């Protein structure tokens, strides 16, 4: 009689779960419509251990003004989700994620870290890259966009010289954190100096309702691929009005976290496309769901990120690789262009302005645990 059983590796018990809260220094200040990043980024790292000693890694990349505080990600994983994970089998991944969704409200970055680590560990034991576990590959080279957000624009001009030399095809100007004249000056200067870049503009909710339409019209005259989240996340009706007034596509980012927001955004017609992030959706699978819902409503999708290390970038890259609905590229630039030092043991793979999706098991690259320990401000178990 034929036995119908999983291999013992793929059915392995999860026996350990370690969590770190780290602060990683950054190269410069960055300003956004909702707030600044100064000094360092705060990340929470997760390591799952299987009964044979194999490990899988995940990252939560919270930002206090956007998704939540790092202490919440740390507590969600170390205190509330650990009892749902340790002692379970890897083959129960969907059940573990469904339990996590019910056990902890919000904390989407922690759930993304958990699903990433489950997929990384499963992939390593099965000998498959994470994108294979998510449905197979639709794209293996993802065009990379780098964000321009330094209040010192001369420093960003120097960065753009480097980006041009590196073959980066797209930049995203962060706008709405100073005055409108500063945004227009930068747009004019970029158009004159770097005509080779495709341009996107992201307000990160930075415009006030009374002058948003006039400013969006001005910026649209520069012909960017899209203008992203000009007003506050909850201003759905205003987003819909701006979409109607704008001559270039309007993207939603902070307005759409998971599938539930996507359903409302589509019903209320607030955008032409959406920025998809595993840290907003609460995992890679839910991010794929958001992208498919967007496509079903005739909307485009962009592969966004938070202030991540190469580990978070890898999770996003595997998700995008398996998600043909995400057609506008990605922004996994922080590991190479923003952090003083990444945590990956090998550089996050970028070639000729594209992220190269790994084809080796799991996420394909592991972090260096010594670097995580060196930047840790809390650890559990301590
Ligand atoms: Mg954005």
Core attributes:
single chain, 382 residues, alpha/beta, Enolase-like, domain 1, TIM Barrel, 2 domains, 7-stranded parallel beta sheet, 4-stranded antiparallel beta sheet, 20% strand, globular, binds magnesium ion
Task: Describe the 3D structure.
- This protein is α/β, with parallel strands linked by helices and 382 residues long.
- It has two domains: 14-127 and 369-380, 2-Layer Sandwich (Enolase-like, domain 1), CATH 3.30.390.10; 133-356, Enolase-like C-terminal domain (TIM Barrel, Alpha-Beta Barrel), CATH 3.20.20.120.
- It contains 14 helices and 16 strands.
- The strands form four sheets. The chain has a seven-stranded parallel β-sheet with strand order 7-8-9-10-11-12-13.
- Helix 11 (284-296) packs across helix 12.
- It starts with 13 loop residues before the first strand and ends with a strand.
- Bound molecules: magnesium ion.
- The site of magnesium ion (MG) has 7 residues, from loops.
Uncertain residue ranges: none
Separation of the first and last Cα atoms = 49 Å
Helix content: 25-40%
How can the largest sheet be summarized?
7 strands, parallel
Ligands, ions, cofactors? magnesium ion
Predict the CATH topology of the largest domain: TIM Barrel
Q: Going across the major beta sheet, what is the strand order?
A: 7-8-9-10-11-12-13
What order do the helices and strands come in, and which of them pair?
Layout: E1 14-25, E2 30-32, E3 35-37, E4 40-50, E5 55-60, H1 70-85, H2 93-103, H3 108-126, H4 130-133, E6 141-143, E7 145-148, H5 153-165, E8 170-174, H6 180-193, E9 198-202, H7 212-220, E10 227-228, H8 236-245, E11 250-252, H9 259-268, E12 273-276, H10 278-281, H11 284-296, E13 300-303, H12 310-321, H13 334-337, E14 350-351, E15 354-356, H14 369-375, E16 376-380
């Amino acid at each position: 009689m034929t036995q119908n059983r999983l291999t013992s590796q793929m059915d392995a018990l999860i026996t350990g779960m370690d969590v770190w809260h780290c602060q990683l220094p950054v190269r410069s200040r960055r300003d956004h419509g909702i707030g600044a990043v100064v000094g360092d980024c705060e990340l929470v790292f997760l390591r799952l251990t299987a009964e044979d000693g194999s490990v899988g890694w995940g990252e939560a990349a919270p930002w206090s003004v956007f998704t939540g505080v790092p202490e919440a990600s740390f507590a969600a994983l170390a205190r509330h989700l650990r009892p749902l994970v340790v002692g379970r089998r890897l083959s129960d991944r969907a059940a573990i994620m469904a339990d996590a969704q019910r056990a902890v409200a919000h904390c989407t970055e922690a759930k993304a870290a958990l699903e990433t680590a489950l997929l990384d560990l499963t992939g390593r034991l099965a000998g498959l890259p994470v994108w294979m576990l998510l449905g197979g590959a639709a794209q293996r080279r993802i065009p990379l966009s780098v964000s321009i957000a330094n209040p010192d624009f001369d420093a960003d001009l120097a960065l753009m010289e480097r980006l041009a030399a590196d073959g980066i095809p797209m930049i995203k100007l962060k706008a709405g954190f100073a005055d409108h004249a500063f945004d227009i000056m930068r747009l004019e200067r970029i158009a004159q100096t770097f005509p080779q870049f495709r341009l996107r503009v992201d307000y990160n909710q930075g415009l006030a309702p009374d002058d948003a339409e006039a400013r969006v019209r001005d910026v649209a005259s520069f012909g960017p691929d899209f203008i992203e989240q000009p007003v506050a996340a909850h201003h759905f009706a205003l987003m819909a009005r701006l979409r109607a007034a704008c001559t270039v596509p309007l993207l939603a980012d902070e307005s759409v976290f998971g599938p539930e927001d996507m359903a409302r955004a589509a019903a209320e017609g607030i955008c032409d496309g959406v920025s998809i992030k595993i840290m907003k959706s609460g995992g890679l699978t839910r991010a794929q769901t958001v992208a498919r819902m967007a496509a079903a409503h005739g909307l485009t999708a962009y592969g966004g990120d938070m202030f991540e290390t190469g580990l978070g970038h890898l999770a996003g890259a595997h998700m995008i690789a398996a998600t043909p609905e995400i057609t506008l590229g990605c922004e996994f630039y922080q590991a190479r262009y923003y952090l003083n030092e990444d945590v990956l043991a090998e550089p996050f793979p970028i070639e000729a302005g594209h992220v190269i999706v790994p084809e080796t098991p799991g996420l394909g690259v592991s972090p260096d645990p010594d670097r995580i320990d060196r930047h840790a401000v809390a650890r559990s178990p301590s």
